[in-house]
Amino acid sequence: MAAIFLFLLLLLLLQVAAAQQGNISLGASLYPNNNSYWLSNSGQFAFGFYRQGNDLAVGIWFEKTNPKTVIWTANRDAVKQEPLPNDVQLTVRDSGVELSSTSKNAFLIPISNSSQPAFRAAMLDSGNFVLYNSDSKIIWQTFDVPTDTIVSGQRLLAGTKLISSISNMNHASGRFQVIMQSDGNLVQYPVGPFTLSTDQYAYWASGTVGAGNNVSLNLDQNGGLYLLNSTGFKIKSIAGQQGLSMYPGYRLTIDADGILRLYSYSLVKNGSWSIEWSSTDNKCAPLGLCGLNSYCVLVEQEPSCVCLPGFTFIYEGQRYLGCKRNLSAVGCKGENETSYSIADVDNIDWENTPYSILSLDKTACKEDCLMDCNCEVAVFRDQQCKKQKLPLRFGRTGPTDMAVTTFVKKGTTDESSGTNRVSKGRKKVEIVVNSYYLVGILVIIQLGIL
What we know:
Elements: H1 2-19, E1 23-25, E2 29-30, E3 37-39, E4 45-52, E5 55-62, E6 69-73, H2 78-81, E7 89-93, E8 96-100, E9 107-108, E10 120-123, E11 129-132, E12 138-141, E13 149-151, E14 155-156, E15 161-165, E16 173-180, E17 186-190, E18 204-205, E19 216-219, E20 225-228, E21 234-239, E22 249-254, E23 260-266, E24 272-278, E25 294-299, E26 302-307, E27 311-313, E28 323-325, E29 338-346, E30 348-349, E31 356-358, H3 362-371, E32 377-381, E33 384-388, E34 395-397, E35 404-411, E36 419-424, E37 427-432, H4 438-446
Parallel strand pairs: 25-34
Antiparallel strand pairs: 1-10, 2-7, 3-4, 4-5, 5-6, 7-8, 8-9, 10-11, 11-12, 13-22, 14-19, 15-16, 16-17, 17-18, 19-20, 20-21, 22-23, 23-24, 25-26, 27-28, 29-35, 29-36, 30-34, 31-33, 32-33, 32-35, 36-37
């Protein structure tokens, strides 16, 4: 009888300890340079201040991995607008988690629509930072407001999304997102206006449209990644382990390069991360990896941005920012005559936003754009000539079976050979350019002799 009593007492103590893991009382504070974070009970996760380049940020990270891996950041875009001062302190209060300083006005880490006062907080071993009310019920948790990552035991609910970070060192919002849509489909898009979240701009999807309006993405303790409907039925397994896992930690992250990856780590391997699954093996697949008027190509399986002919990078040190014309823009010049040529770029796919679509063969498409003073670019595909206005977006290498050519109009002031048009309004005269006679011919044309 005594043994049973001792067993029940031990079980009760374990339950109390589990309930109190990482427990943080009201009034507890953190500081950037001293007592800067709170650990979960096992020491697996930490919540507090971390350095983001030269700036401070507040977040959650894997404490035992090498390097430490951030999985959540509070007010992730606020630092870009106004960095946190060095004298900032973080305090748990009944109103929430508060950042304050002696030199700045206090502001709050957002609390999700909770009108209840907080009674205590906890950094759980699941990687979830939570606030409790006086009845020990969770009134706010970071699992409900993910940034670019979910971890084991976490779900991405219908209508919520993950947004990539700018880089591994800068966890402000980046250029890519994955959305658990209300139609049951898990889809990746570039970040942008609402209109970008349409089929045209999806670069990966789970293919589960129509599965229900309460489908969730789930990552379990064994690394299983799957979609559940509102009844708990598994409608699709995306990735997963068979049986119990040998790894202590998993995370699903939409990385800065726009690819969704499932990672595992093992303490046996010094806490290093291994890729278990990724949404694509093609690193040029994410739309918008390269900026305006540029396109992505693979060089030894790594992405590289290339400018259209007649364009140069806006900033050589950050090629993903896109390209600009190295000459003045083409167009109708009234009575001023301007000479242009057409450069061909093969097998590059673009955003489909033509201002004119014509049924022409490839040669006729090229000629039509060259003679149209409003045409800057034409994309020829499937016997259709689609004339475009710049800038072009979302350029990337197309499928190997895709026959597409981009015709780019550019100035010919620096060329000594080729077939060109001298345009005067809508009047075109064909000439064969020769470096010895070009100047003389242009003078004759201007004098009206031809």
